[in-house]
Structure prediction request, 284 residues.
Amino acid sequence: MSLRADGLTLGYGGDPVVADLSLELPAGAITAIVGANACGKSTLLRGLARLLAPRSGAVLLDGTELAKLGTREVARRLGLLPQSPAAPEGLTVEDLVARGRYPHQSWLQQFSRDDQDHIEWALEVTDTAGLRRRALDQLSGGQRQRAWIAMALAQDTETLLLDEPTTFLDMAHQVEVLDLLADLNREQGRTVVMVLHDLNQACRYADHLVAMDRGRIHAQGPPADVVDAAMVRAVFGLDVRIVPDPEEHTPMCVPARRRRRRSEVAPGAATGDARHEPLAPDPS
Prediction:
């Protein structure tokens, strides 16, 4: 399945957030979209998922404009985890995950054993089975995030679009979720597109990396070809050293040593500046 943007311009009423952007997402691969805050990452993902109508240009799914496809067909083919999703008050985890199966049902085909099997699998792999009867509004941020991921997985689509899937998760659960997505890609050939804030995680898990800057693509390609000190400085405004990840040998960014501003140095503290030499001992 192919998903691409062609001359895509997106916005929310004022100046465009994403401008004349063209992008083809590799089928059967993991793509990570990275960039500084407010660069247009989430807006692009919303456009790819048909949550935001283009001002110009188009998103094409297997060559057909997404806007021309039926809602149920899109939901059967594109699974979405939006940023900061909301659910009705009192909804339980199991009820939320079951909503992922709605696109596969119709008047002639109601809830089936296959639907329940997908729900049970999604609860199990996201470690939320023990929370199934808990209301979402009673959970921690990390537990809620895993429940929403379970819903997207239960949808059982060819392509997953995930906006910051590791938000609110502790380090262990971040790795579990990213490992799970990598397994789904490797074992089932699912296309995964995710917005990530952690550039090192993006380098470790992505086959294809898209670096955005002010609504446009600054660079894209395999992480080893894209991520260098010049790119990080241009996109994030940060000086880094690029070293090999000791586990995966992918690029790893190490921020340069922080230089303290003079205003942060406590009065009387040694600074190494010649103008602040320590006083000579009192000869008396």
Summary: The chain has a mean pLDDT of 90. The domain at 3-276 is CATH 3.40.50.300 (Rossmann fold). The first strand starts at residue 3 and ends at 10. The CA atoms of residues 75 and 273 lie 62 Å apart.
